[in-house]
Specification:
By secondary structure, this protein is an all-alpha fold. It is built from 5 helices and no strands.
Length: about 150
Amino acid sequence: MNDTSSAPAPPTQDETTMALLAHVLQIFTWWIGPLVIYLVRRESKFVSFHALQALFWQITMVVVGAIGMGFWIFLIFAMVISHAGKAAPNHGPPPVFFLVFPLFWLGFLVFWVANIVIGVVFGIKAGRGEWASYPLLGRWARRVVGV
């Protein structure tokens, strides 16, 4: 989703490098890299826009991860409590555990791969000087930056 019709003046080489770093650093530093770049280069709308998008993406990943982890912990406690009064000591984990556990790991893997792909793709676009927007999160970043 590229919107270049309302883009201000073209960014400088330094701005494109910092914007590229905001996207690529999120792969390795999660939310810390984009936050530092946003705080250091807040005066540049281009850098702020790209750093905020990466920061919003990382916040979204933390929230979704926390909800998933909370659900996982709830599921484990629910299984322990449901089997607490049963007299079968050699009774293994319930079959649903073997269905849900791989789904959680698959979800984790999807987010991990998506994080890498988004960081690389939007890093390349930022390095080219494009005002490329993440779906949904790009609009929020545009509003905050005022572009």
